[in-house]
Design a protein that fits this description.
By secondary structure, this protein is mainly β. It has a single domain, classed as Porin. Helix content is about 0%, strand content about 50%. It has an 18-stranded antiparallel β-barrel. The chain has a two-stranded antiparallel sheet with strand order 2-4. Strand 7 and strand 8 form a beta hairpin. The longest helix has 5 residues.
Amino acid sequence: MWLASAALAAVPVEIVQPEVRAPEPFRALGLYQARFARSSVVTTNPYLDGQVLGALGGSNGTTVSADDRSTWAEQRAVAFLTWAPLPAGGRAELTAAFEIDFVFGDQSYGAAGNTGGAIGADQVNLQTRRLHASFEPVVDHELSVVVGLQFVGDSVYDPRTASLDELTRTGGGLAIWGSEAAGATAYGRLQDGWGTRLRYKLGAYTLYEQGTALSDDVTLYMADVQGALGERAFLGGHAWYLRDAGDGTAGVLGSGLSSALSELQGARRLDLREREGDEAPALGADVVWLGIDGGLDPGLTLGRVGGHAAWFVNAGRLWIEDQPDAGILGSLGLFDLRLRYAQGSGSQVAVAGVYSSGDGATSDYNGVVTGNSYGLAGAMWATHGTLLLFPDPGAINRQVALAYDVSGFGRGLTGASAQLAYDLVPDRTTLGGTVGYAYVGDFDPLGTELNLRLRHRPLPLMDLSVAAAVVTGSSFDAAPFTVIAAADWILF
């Protein structure tokens, strides 16, 4: 989890563990979240009520009701534990992270993830979030190698030490990849008297290992580089390759562009059957992402103005059983711009936007491919400031949105938001609001969201907040709305 600024209250715990340097061989970092919510978004499938996420109105069984209301309370606790043996001299560590979360009153006397809050408790619910070793193999060189189950982002930064802004406002901003995976990553830096001049990352991950003697795995390879352009600006380049030989069968809901997992999270589920009623053919894929991004002080650490923009192209080929191959070619653009206009870190005005290409009438897929076709959740755009139009980054186990994936159901997505906030008490009490709008395809509106937030920090690293949001102009008969009261506390 991030150990950064006041924005921590809006950060999903799945994303990252910060590093707290200390001389002790054992370190512990904790996160506690509690949330009470009331919403017109209701769940119609009782078997998907333990953890509800994905596209609003989609296969997750959610809809919007004019008569019924969802009311729930939930909590989450996460512990990050790091052991740095003294003989290693600070150059080797072992880290594990575990999570327990549930909705008040959901279940007891059983075993399942994301449950265990009913009377009597006694529920087995312990989820492994990290389990990796990290090494600094070369003396006097800024190189760190992480091996094991770790968080994989879509930028050059090491999630163990990166800030919130470094992960969400560089590279793909977690909109393409942002989830745990098992593999190995090398993070490096080149420095001089002026500071860090170059960062780089090389990573290889096994997303799914099925038959160990069969070539049916899903693997991801990533290479990222970022160079400094003066003190505040940077320019980055990204090249990633996904080899999907899983035939769409990996995981509980399948994986890839033809999977139920992809559909659940608002990405494209390709129907590759030649005739209705036929069995879906096995599907494999080779996908390459090439991207460029740049920014100017996106974390507002050196000045009052900061911004970031990125452009990615994904290309590749779908290997379809007993059918001709199909091509993949899509593009994605992201940007955000912020201005701190008054005293206090929360006194900001910001704009953010997203654009992705859409699938056409050809046999090829002309949309965007993201980690949401492979992981639950596999990616999430996080800097928009909305609660229902795009995914709420502060959600615990109830996270649904009209545009959950930046592919816009494969049809293409265009969206923007504007945020305004003011510190009533500098760095302690913040009042803010957001207006956001999005449509898919040529011009199929998803809706316009308006929300308001009030956040107060009574103690260091503890945030208490209330928020309300409503979406107008959606395709639902009633207006989606939510009201939230939340507490977020970081302990170390």
